[in-house]
Amino acid sequence: SGNNFEIIIIDDGSPDGTQEIAEQLEKIYGSDKIVMREISVLFSLGTAYIHGMKHATGNFIVIMDADLSHHPKFIPEFIRKQKEGNFDIVSGTRYKGNGGVYGWDLKRKLISRGANFITQVLLRPGASDLTGSFRLYRKEVLQKLMEKCVSKGYVFQMEMIVRARQLGYTIGEVPITFVDRVYGESKLGGNEIVSFLKGLLTLFATT
Fold first, then answer.
1. Which is the CATH superfamily of the domain at 59-206?
2. Nearest by Cα to 193 from 118, 100, 101
3. Where are the domains positioned within the chain?
4. Where do the Glycosyltransferase 2-like domain residues begin and end (predicted)?
5. Which helix (H) or strand (E) holds 167?
6. Strands across the sheet with 135-138, in order?
7. What is the pLDDT of residues 59-72, one digit of tens each?
8. For residue 24, what pLDDT is reported?
9. d(C-alpha 70, C-alpha 202), whole Å
10. DSSP character for 154?
11. What is the per-residue pLDDT for 184?
């Protein structure tokens, strides 16, 4: 790609074979490119971010799902967009340009669209996709946002963007296509939806 990079894989001891695959990749590409780290504390997305940042040596961090629902082919676009506008954050968006979602049923699409619509109306964050997690961050910006964010679960990604706007960070967007995982199931359920609404109201009251 012409870019210096490292891939940091954070695994919480899941039984899906992540560690074995990462170890094989490390043998092929070297430990300077594939960095495998296990995490033993109670796992959450924020915990994984913090753990991963400790081992990141670059100035920019791309965060994506390891099940490849986020396709790596978009990463060069993220980098180009960042350089183009010197953005602090570049966010992948499913709801702009030629972005889209494949593999979701109507219910899941309505929940995601509804969550984004309600958030746009209440918070006016200036970004079109608030619940996606495929993003490029300037490392120091990600560190600052992690200090500010208190949410967990589905609302976490939304708070990251809202706090970024609150702190005056610049955000660019790149249209992406999201393909639902082939194996496993989404964790999105009734509890996560209630948690999202509570988090949304909290952000509305505090930003």
1. Spore Coat Polysaccharide Biosynthesis Protein SpsA; Chain A (3.90.550.10)
2. 118
3. 1-42, 59-206
4. 3-145
5. none
6. 60-63, 135-138, 89-93, 171-175
7. 999 998 877 889 99
8. 93
9. 29
10. G
11. 47
